[in-house]
Amino acid sequence: MLEILKKIFFALLPFLQKAAEDALNDATASKGGSESSQKSESHKGESRQGEARTSGSSAPKPSASKSSSAPKPSAPASTGASDGSDYPGDYRDMINFEYSPSLDGDADPGEIVWTWVPFEEDHSQGKDRPVLLVGRDGEYLLALMMTSKDHNNREHADSNYLDIGSGPWDPQGRASEVKLNRVIRVRPDAMRREGAIMPEDTFRLIERAWTRHNG
After folding, report:
1. pLDDT single digits (tens) 131-141
2. What are 117's strand-pairing partners?
3. Burial zone of 35 (CB within 10 Å; 0-12 exposed, 13-18 middle, 19+ buried)
4. Residue 142 domain boundaries
5. Is residue 71 part of a domain?
6. Is 119 inside a domain boundary?
7. Of the candidates 195, 127, 136, 201, which has an alpha carbon nearest to the alpha carbon of residue 164?
8. Between residues 40 and 74, which one has the greater pLDDT?
């Protein structure tokens, strides 16, 4: 009986081995196919992402905001008032006095005009005030400051100021004084308005007083 079973076993052994090999090959093939499918799907996904990135990068960029290219508002026009930045400084030489007034709209020596006068201690600041034009310095007119403030009286005397009395340059009829120790440079186009013509005898009085004070 044992001999019969051995013969049957050895007769079936090749078939069992073949069946085991086939089963092993099928399992291996199935695993390889699954991995290949996963790799293929992964590759397709990466390809789609790459296409999306490429499409996004090639899309036209939005144009710059119109507001950035809009014209800027122009600066307000100058009113003609000076801030002292172009003031060349006070005149410190002897004056060649000139008397040639003419109420023709142009500023001339011998006339009293209103103009912007920088403060002596700070040329970046100043105020409109009357001045007497007395001569020229190149492109500039030379002027002496006028004031209605009383610097010479019974209680106080200031040699830097000369009393000249009242005149048509002051509509209120106040007595005026001329400052002798400062000479202002004035651009002809910086004159605000003409005031009046200084009488020549008063002009010559001022000339003599200034020469004595500064000579």
Report:
1. 999 999 999 99
2. 127
3. exposed
4. 87-214
5. no
6. yes
7. 201
8. 40
